Amino acid sequence: MVSFYKTPKKPRQAGARKRTGVMVDSLDIHGVGVSRSQKPVMFIEGALPGECVDVSIQQTQKQVVKASTIKVVQASEKRQQPFCPVYSQCGGCQLQHIDADDALTERQHAMQTYWVHHLGVANLPWQAPLTGERPAYRRKARLAVDARNPASIKLGFRQQSSKAIVDVKSCPVLVPALQALMPLLRDIVFSYPASRHIGHIQVLAGDDVCEVTVKATRDLPAAMRDELAAFGQQTNTNVVLENATGAYETLHHFAQLRCQTIDDLYVTPSPEDFVQVNAVVNKKMVTQAIDWLAPEKDDVIADWFAGLGNFSFGLARKVQRLYAVEGVASMVQKGQAAAQAQGIDNIVWQHLDLNEPASVQDAINHGFTKMLLDPSREGAAQVCQHIAGSGIKQVVYVSCNPSTFTRDAQILLKAGYNIEKIGLVEMFPYTRHLEVMALFSLRSE
Known about the structure:
Number of strands: 23
CATH superfamily of the largest domain: Vaccinia Virus protein VP39
Structural class: alpha+beta
Shape: flat
CATH class of the largest domain: Alpha Beta
């Protein structure tokens, strides 16, 4: 059985206790080293299977201990030198010390063992993981700003396990278009005392244009606003200012921001909207989901937790009708507008709370043959409970949280579904974050 470290609600702090010569057996799903020779089981940040390490114990609980590596006594052959100079301080990446392919292999093995135990499925039908560009994969990021001390302004990311900000001059996991913007943004932030009124700067690379959104807690001076607009003109970048009330003001507009989903289809995110950060992996994910569902012209398909239409548009082209349900009203409106602009007229959009039983019950009575679920980390427990007895033949479930996926998979398996295919989705290389896609098929009587 694989155990997973979960942060205790009220951990007992262990002070500065150290332990030497700890042997590491494996990685868990999050890429944390696991030592089962320790009692209780020890979870060790920064440690790899087969290594002997000295550790600092951070927290203890009845069944687990949380620790961090302070010295590698005997290194694994899979250990590599991190490629980012601030890796040890920045909280953005946690797994640059292991080759990304090796990390995927180890984590898939951990998940296999865990699911065999919790789902009772002996032979999971694993498919090849979906991977993309490395290391420069990230098309969206939020840069934190700390300008309280004019002599020590910081623009970057939070430290690991801290609210402090690490000053980042460049970030190698950002796509090249965003890396090119960072020096210019730093020049502006470092030039104005009013930068202390900036909470963060969000950057997003669309297919043909980048967009920079500056979150201000107070009005910025005219000279700074003008320089931000000039930055947009110089770089052909959309620049948006979000004020303290949450209202958006465009300082410079170059082009509509679009993010391709599949073929010639695209979504049109605004600064507040969710969009997958890894463009290459997202296209592979959408393609695989459609392939697994194998939609036919007479199918009526549900795409729930649909967002802006990431999966909806590609599916709609292949079926009779598609019902797209999303809990954020503004995203429903933008999805409708983007569908109309692309000539897609067979999507029925609904704004519903899919965690509310009555809404789910009303929405599921449309004669669906197949369904796609892409929920947030909270999962889709209510939906899965209502799928039971609905007659839906196939469900593709895309999850960003293995724990809630496990809970929901148990519901579907008990309702008469089999796991026909399953695979990992590496949306965030070098991080603890890992996604999974599974195809559930209704068993024939």
